[in-house]
Amino acid sequence: MTICAEVIAIGDEITSGSRLDTNSQWLASQFGDLGVRTLYHSSVGDDFDACVDVFRIAIGRSDYIVMTGGLGPTQDDLTRKAIAAATDRPIEIRQEALDHIQSFFVGREMPDRNRLQAEFPQGSRLIHNPHGTAPGIDLTVERPGRPDCHVFCLPGVPAEMRQMWNAGVAVRMRELLGVQRVVRQHVVKCFGVGESDMESRIADLLDRKQTPQVGITVNRATISLRIFAEGSDEADCQSQIDRVTESLQQRVGEFIFGAGDDFELQDAVIELLDRRGETLCCVEHGFNSLADTWLSACERPDLYRGGLSLSDQRASNRWRSVLGIPQNGSPEQWTAEVMERFDADWALAIDGYPTIVPEEGKTNPSSDIRLVVTGRKLATPRSLTFHMGGHPDVLPPRIGKAGLNFLRQVLLAN
What we know:
Helix content is 36%, strand content 29%. The protein is of the alpha/beta class. It has a six-stranded mixed β-sheet, with helices on both faces. Strands 14-13-15-16-17 form a five-stranded mixed β-sheet, sandwiched between helices. A hairpin with a 2-residue loop joins strand 7 (136-143) and strand 8.
């Protein structure tokens, strides 16, 4: 039977969208390091009945649960009473917890409401909090005919929560798990193919019954293929990952540009330049150009010499005069001149990002985009023209990525 975990974030600030829930992301990764897969993320506001419902559902479907938030001293801190109600247990004051809380009020009177933080569901353990007045809760819930469910309640303050996880919850879980299972993830990044086309090419690998499992997500035209391997040790997991990545290379290798959550097309370009000992500059025409911004963030001035972002015709005309480019100068002329001025080995031109006038419910009409790559080792520049339209939030990143991907392909071929 697969052991699964659930992470629950508690608080109106989470469900209202006023605060980003980073705790759940971090906790899910910690479960993974322990060999336990997180199948559910839940969020619930500061409502007693809603909290009880969420807790009961989680206990019914998950083996390990971590809840964050709702352990403060105010009226909207409902975790203690809600978890007690969800498990049909009375509340009791723990003197150990009360002594700890009172230690934070040396020289002044402790408010009566802080006594709430010493309340625990009967039969639960205390998780020590060295930095705050909110001790955590460790509760084992029996489930007839099934393994016990283990519930851990931690404060929502990230620094306190992480300390208590590392010193308390993680240690306890290793004891409960006995033989530690290993779970590893590997992300393959792709560009240049649509999600439905990608899915049709690797449909059998996406079958949820397969081992290891493969998931597909898309963010602004970049496709991430996430391989989830579970095994007895690191070598077992790596063998599974290697098998899938080899299959992906055979089927969709022309679209794969790298691996890792944070690896992007500009990183792939910089890696190629580094390997070749060559340098790059770029020139972009149009509104909201992005390639220069992304490449500059790579912090490799020895490889990326910089570029020009010409947002409108006035900027373009000004630089035409400076560089001596004719009024009707082509992207090839721009790349050749910029490459010389920046003393680079390669130049990329993206011509151009369309002017975007956002209108509710509308997308930008398709327009011609021209990409040009000029290099000192190329006899003639390489160019590509295509049509692209789309939502204002998506269109500029797609165009910038198309330019970087075209450059990457030219570098690989030469």
